[in-house]
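Memo to structure team: turn this sequence into structure tokens by end of day. - J.P.
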Amino acid sequence: MRIIQVYDKLDRIGGAQIIIKNLHAFFLERGYTSRVAGLNNYDSFAFKNSIPVGEYAQIGLKNIKIFSDTIIVSHSRKITSLLFVLRKVFWFKYQLIHVSHSIFNDKRNFTFFPDRVIGVSNAVKKNLINYFKVNEKRIEVIYNGLTDAINEIDLRSYQPDQEIRILFVGRIEQVKQQLLIVEKLAGKISEKIKIDFAGSGSQEDELINVIKEKGLLNFSYIGFQNNIPQLAENYHFVMLYSEKEGLGLTLIEACMAGRPVITRGADGCEACAEICIDNHNGYITNDMESLISVLNSLGNLSKEEYYKLCRNSRKIYENKFRIELMFEKYDRLINNFNY
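Reply from structure team:
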């Protein structure tokens, strides 16, 4: 069986790209012929250190035949729509699965989905049904899963009277709202709250300058970081406060590490509420005033209450987001094809 995963942003590392890399390794382990294909040449491929050149292809009109007699797993709605049209017009012989990683509210008339669609969360599934009018029977929800890098959580000593450390992980871009967080929280949160921003992106220089020039002691920028679950163990909470999320891997990594999370759960971030249950393994807050209130209340948590949040986070990871659960569901879906 030949499988090709395609995506249009393989020159960077993000949630969708990590899932593609992990699925590729799983497909090879299962004995399938697996490749990854993107719009970039191999030199700019983000995973060239782990995926050899022979397992990567640059998409172009000259090599369109690489898709013949394959199962294509597309993680890009732009590429999915193109492949959908090519198959209809030129009768190309391939099976097509679309994986929807995010919530979209544009280009409805120019977006085409195949018979089999995967949504990475129930919120994404709802978006596919309500906005894109995809038949519910064509959609299967498969949560993104991650390899357990922790196994047993370390309950960090919680001393709220001294310092409360919060890790904010994500691309430094407008959609992740780091600059807005700094602007709205500056001067309004306890001096005990320390928020470290981890990631890289187009707004990182601006973020660094704002923190430095204004002398904001609540905030620090620590650059791009690998091994987020292990890093999260050095913090009390993990935070993600995006404009929209299909299913934030940062929150899954936090749960893996047994850390409570702070996030939004509405208006484009409904999927985050599938990871964070308010007052169970963290806090959902959908506006800046309530976020400030939540942050300033963290010092009132007892150690017992904090440790309960930690244990609940770990249970959510184990029950919903282990990588084995994701692999099992993709494998079953792939094997339903008659190749």
